[in-house]
Amino acid sequence: MASLGSDELGAGGSANESVPSSNNSLNSVELDAKLRKLSCTTYFDGLVFCTTPTNQLTNYYRHGRLDDCADAIKNLQTCMRIKFAKISNKEKAKKMLKMSTLKTSSTVGTVWKARDEPSLKANPID
Predict the structure, then answer these.
(1) Cystine design at 93: which of 14, 49, 85, 111 (Cβ 3.0–4.6 Å)?
(2) How far apart are CA 49 and CA 1, in angstroms?
(3) Is 87 part of any domain?
(4) What is the rounded CA–CA span in Å between residue 54 and residue 69?
(5) Is residue 117 part of a domain?
């Protein structure tokens, strides 16, 4: 799994399950900001990492098969479609971004669940 920053949309390795993003609840201003910040470089980096021997051997050890990088390819394709749509039709690009399953972090859905607000409940260790 690639180590990607959470300040911009992260690619997430293909070993991660695709989870619906919280983009469905964004207002127009937030969507404009996300569209402006969208960088396909992180998704390209995720695809490059997916093809490395380290990732492939780790995936083979854990799952008994090589990683086909399908999620990384899908994320890069989605990002590129949104970027190209932004050139000709910004509203279409915003709609595509809102409906996409692009993650905001490489660990969302695999380590923790995304929340809109912080949890006030403490998790005591028994």
Answers:
(1) 85
(2) 8
(3) yes
(4) 13
(5) no
